[in-house]
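Supplementary notes for students who missed Thursday's class. We covered one full example, reproduced here. Read the sequence, then the structure, then the short commentary at the end.
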Amino acid sequence: MPLRFTTDRKFEARCTAAGGETFKATFRVLSDDETNGYFSPDSNTPSLDQEKAFLRAVVVDLGDLIGEDGHPIRFDSGVLDQALGMADMRIGLLKGYRLGLQGARAGN
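Structure (token representation):
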């Protein structure tokens, strides 16, 4: 598939939370300059606030989320904030973004 050369690029990735549960995320691709704005060059490990700010900038949508009542959860900024407050989902999103940029595919 040819690459659409645009500054507004998005991709979907399957992300994994604790226990192997998965959910879908749609991400916006940031430029190098935009990405550098979220992480301190003085540290190899970003702070929790830096991770959350970065994910707020790149996460466009979350899917395949089911509430305690068994009904689908509709994505909005409140859902994103809740997800970012759960370490396993936050780590799953960071990993999904990184693997998606690398073009990793399940089973490869």
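Commentary. Residues 10-102 form one domain. The two ends are 18 Å apart (CA to CA). If anything here is unclear, bring it to office hours.
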